[in-house]
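Q: Hi! First time doing this. I have a protein sequence and I read that you can turn it into a structure. Is that right? Here it is:
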Amino acid sequence: MSLGLIARSDGDEAAEDHFLEALSLFRLGRHRRDAASVLANLGNLAQDRGDLLRASRFLDGAIQLYREIGDRRGAGLVLVNMSIVAERRRDHRRSVELADEAIDEFRATRDDAGLGAAQHNLGNLLLGDGQVVEGLRALDDATESFRRAGDARGVIMTLESLGRAADSVGARSMAWRCRIDRAIILTRLGLERARRSALDQLVLVAEKAGCEPEAAAIGRLADADGTEVERVLQAMRVLGPGDEVDEADTGAASTPVPSRELLDLTARERELLQFVGAGLDNGEIADRMYISKRTVDSHLSHIRTKLGVTDRAKLVVLAREQLA
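A: Yes, that's right. Below is the predicted 3D structure, encoded as structure tokens:
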């Protein structure tokens, strides 16, 4: 099996022979989990080669074995690949069904990294089918799943997809926040080249939207240290291009500074709290932020814990006083 993996990475035609020999040995020894893993690799190899029918057959065999032994995580991983193969075979309905099944498996095993990958796949499928709100919500859920898993690269990947998708449908506020968040994470990780590229992209987006002060302020961050970059970007998160841009003369200096008791909230939590202050219920907030109501409920629970406020009426007052 290891020889097969090495050969596959090298593009060696012998990869399939190694995998088939491994499969025969594992079956002989009745090692079903290992046999399932080999079948999954054979499916991925066939997919690489464009033989989608053969890929489906191998992956079907893998999922059967994983389900026989009750390995839900293994099943989830295979289901994600099966979904991708189904989409490539132009069976969109089946692809979405498989993506949903993968999400169920990862939720059952509390595998947030796997869940994020499945939700990311589902989001792209839904967007491709014209289901914009559902697709954006799935991508946003994927971002939250990767965050819970501590998978920074997963978060970066999903923010890129979410920002691009939001921009394509005119949700410029959401696209702006995604690009800001992505630049902040790249800064924290010390990925200098990627960070500079992200900042250059933000400058272009701000200029295109007529937000010259924001563009100029971000342009000055090229040689700034990480702390300064993050401070400025956090301040600009809610001041960038909106869905209807009419604040082109708004500069970073006018950023509202939250009171001490709000400093522990994340930028996303402060954004949600602003909607609470506007009198929106959780369902309406979910629609505005393109996230699920369950995610809104979770965020509000964290906000109440951080602020020590259990009454929603008090939250509304606090939001109106401090985040106006």
